[in-house]
Amino acid sequence: MSDKKKRIFLSPPHMGGKELEYIKGAFESNYIAPLGPQVDAFEQEFSEITGIPYALALSSGTAAMHLAMRLVGIEPGDEIFASTLTFIGSVTPALYMGAAPVFIDSDRKSWNMDISLLADELKLSDKRGKLPKAVIPTDIFGQCADYDEIQRICDRYEIPVIVDAAESLGATYKGRGAGSSGKAGVFSFNGNKIITTSGGGMLASDNPEFIEEARYLSQQARDPVPYYQHSRIGYNYRMSNILAAVGRGQLGVLNDRVKRKREIFNDYYNVLNDIPGIEFMPEAGYGTASRWLSVILITPDVFGMNADGLCQLLEEENIESRPVWKPMHMQPVFKNNDSGNSIESRREKYQMRAVGGSVAEDLFKRGLCLPSGTQMATADMERIISTILRAVE
C-alpha cells in the first residue's frame, strides 16, 4: 500500500456548513447541557421533514428503541419479533427488559423482513397462546420495509409495530417518509449515518401521548413538582443542545445527501452490474431507497473471488469496505454457551429462536458494503472501481 494513497472511508460524516452557526447560537444562549432551544428546533424541523408529527431527540437510536419497547409494555418473559438482518442495537433493549427476540429472516426482493414468514409465525404463536409484544422490522441499508403489509398482518392480532428506521432517513415508502408507520419510528444519527449529530437518535410518532410519555421517562421520570420527586424509574436519555445544533445543520442538507448517495450507487451500478458474479441490492417497487450504503453480492465461483477477498484487496489500497450485517441468529451472544451471564441464563426459559435464516445468512456470506461517503471525489470512485476491476482480471 502506497503511503500517498489517502484513506477512503465507508461512510464518513459530511458537514453542510450551517452546523457551526447553530453551535455558536447554542454557546451564545449558554444552553450547553442537555435540552435547550436547539433541541426544540431540531425536533420541530425533523417532524416537518419526515412528516411524522411528534419527535423526541435522544442520546442514541438504542435509547429510542428502549423507550419505545417500554411504552408498548414489554416485560420479562415476553417475546418480540425482529429482523435478523440488523444491527444489534435494534434488539438488545428487549434483553435489558428480560424479553427474548425471535429473529425473522429476510426476503430477496428487499432484504427486509420476510412478510410471509412473519405471518406464518404469528399464526403459530397465536395457536400456542403466546403472541409477541411487538414486531420490529429494520429498514436495511436505507430501504424501507413493506410497512403497510407488516401493519396489516400485525393488526389482526393487535400487535404494535416499532419501525427501526435507523438506516433509512430520507427514504420513502409509497410517498411517505421512512419510519412513518406503526406505533413509532426509531432513527439514528451515529457518525456513519446519512446525517449525523456524532451520536444521537430520535423517537418519532403520530401519537402525542406516546411521545410525551417517552419524554417524561427520558428525563429521569421527574414528577411535575418544584422539587426532585420520582414516582417511576426513568433514564438519562435526552440529547444535548450542542448535538441538536449539529443536527439542525445536517437536516438542511438531507435531500442533497440522499441525492448524492443515489448517484454513488448508480456510478457503481453502471460500471459493475454487467460483471459476472456481481449483483446489487435491489430496490423494492413500493418506495425509493436512500442508498445509505451501496451493497453488492458476490458469487465466488463466477466472480473468481469471495467477498472477504475483495474486502482485503480494497483494504490493501487503503479503501474501507465492510461485510453485510452478521444476522442476529448467528451472533455468539444468542447461541448456547456456558458463559453464565444474565442473557445466557435466561435463554432456556425464554426460548430465543430464529424463523428461517438462510437468506440473511447468504447475504452475510456474499455481501459487501462499498464506500458511500457523499464527499467522495470522482478520483476516489475511479480508484475503488479500478481496484474491483483488477480483482476481475
Folded structure, characterized:
With 393 residues, this protein is an alpha/beta fold. The protein has helices at 19-29, 37-50, 61-71, 92-96, 115-128, 147-155, 208-218, 241-251, 254-272, 300-303, 307-316, 342-350, 358-366, 378-392; strands at 54-58, 79-83, 100-104, 134-136, 162-164, 172-173, 176-177, 184-188, 201-205, 278-280, 287-288, 294-298, 322-323, 353-355, 367-370. It has 14 helices and 15 strands. A 4-stranded mixed sheet has the order 1-9-8-5, sandwiched between helices. A 4-stranded parallel sheet has the order 4-2-3-14, covered by helices on one side. It has a 4-stranded antiparallel sheet with strand order 10-12-15-13. The longest helix has 19 residues, at 254-272. The model is unreliable at 337-350 (pLDDT under 50).
Helix content: 25-40%
The value of Rg in angstroms is 21 Å
Secondary-structure arrangement, i.e. CATH architecture of the domain at 19-252: 3-Layer(aba) Sandwich
The first-level CATH class of the domain at 19-252 is given as Alpha Beta
Q: Which outline best applies? A: globular
What is the CATH topology classification name of the domain at 19-252? Aspartate Aminotransferase, domain 2
User: Percent of residues in beta strands?
Assistant: 5-15%
Distance between the termini: 19 Å
CATH superfamily of the domain at 19-252: Type I PLP-dependent aspartate aminotransferase-like (Major domain)
Strand order of the largest sheet: 1-9-8-5
